[in-house]
Amino acid sequence: MPDTENLMDTGAPTTEIGLDELWTEIRSLGLESYIKDLDTDGYTVIPPEIANPDNLCQRLLDVCLSIAETRSGVRPDLLNGKSLNTNSVVGDTLKGILLEDPVFEEALMNPALLAISTYLCGYDLVLSSLNFQAKSSSELKFKLHTDTRLPSPLPTRALLCKCIYALTDFNQDNGSTVFVPGSQRWARNPVGDEKEFGEQTGQHAIPTVAPAGSLIIFHGNTWHGAYNRKVSGLRASLHLLMQRSMLRCTEDFYDRVSEEMLERNSARFAILTQQAIIPPYIDHDDQVAKITRALKYTSTFEQESGIALSSKR
Predict the structure, then answer these.
(1) Do 216 and 170 touch, CB atoms closer than 8 A?
(2) Taking CA atoms, which of 39, 76, 118, 249 is between 20 and 30 Å from 26?
(3) Which CATH superfamily is domain 4-251 in?
(4) Residue 2 pLDDT grade (very low, low, confident, very high; cuts 50, 70, 90)
């Protein structure tokens, strides 16, 4: 296990509940070197042999293309297609898809994704949003920014992290994500010319090189953006925003996840899909009912995992 002093410098969860259990899982999955990359650079790229069990990413891609076809009437053409939203730096986006196919449950419950996002944000981690992006060629770069989206200075400990499944190859010509290594330590947002990157600027931003099937995970404070895609076709990716439960979520999964979905997954799935969050209430009786509901899911997770969350809720 890395020494506590160094972890404190990177905002890693040195005092999180369940840290011993988490490190056991990290070692069993062979993720130690990726944790080191994350601590040093603020991001890591997990290769397909770890991140892509049972050809997960190809199955994700097939389902996402089918959903896009159902919604728009046109199936995206990965080799020759153009984004319908050519003025966007991220291209076309499919939102609200978690509940549409069990393959997205697999993406969320991927052991490597959970271990590293838990390392950053703790066991009370929840899914804030899950969406598919299809990005075509354009002249638009995505300027450097952070995903924490709070005024500077930012909290050093991660409040959130982003997990990106590369469903097609990521590289500079394909319009890959770029990172400024170590920028998570600065605990602030880029300003002015700092948002620019490329050969004409002094900003040291590294384009991600990741074959299809890889999983990219980064600290919410890490400065990142994306190159414009220079070749024909589409760059496809699935994005999961993971965050501490105290933050307001982008998508609302509370009381929308079916019992069938909950039963076919471990108890942690309920925690991840916001079932143990206590939403706003309108009176005393409503408050009691919502707290009782949340504690039901928390207790089930604690019994199954042996990790106590009650003190955090």
Answers:
(1) yes
(2) 249
(3) q2cbj1_9rhob like domain (2.60.120.620)
(4) very low
